[in-house]
Amino acid sequence: MHVAPPSTTLVQDHVALAEIELCGDLIIAASAADGERLSFDRIDEVLKVAGERSALQVHQGQQARQVQQVQQG
């Protein structure tokens, strides 16, 4: 039987590590929650995406108004 020698090179996948950390944060939040599930708002809060979602909605609203102005004008 041949076993590969242990590698001395450390490789870190920063994206994977960030995803693992976010999953851990969700697990901790879920274990502390009163109900069976986390609300979408609570998930956004844990993942710190509420501000990003608001900014995206504002941007989409601006785009929609611009399209309406072009169609009307």
Explain what this protein looks like in three dimensions.
With 73 residues, this protein is mainly α. It is built from three helices and no strands. It has helices spanning 14-32, 40-47, 50-72. The N and C termini lie far apart (77 Å).
- Global geometry: elongated
Radius of gyration: 22 Å
Structural class: mainly alpha
Mean pLDDT: 82
Order of helices and strands: HHH
Summed up:
The protein is mainly alpha-helical.
Topology (elements, then pairings):
Layout: H1 14-32, H2 40-47, H3 50-72
Give me some keywords for this one.
single chain; 73 residues; mainly alpha; 68% helix; 0% strand
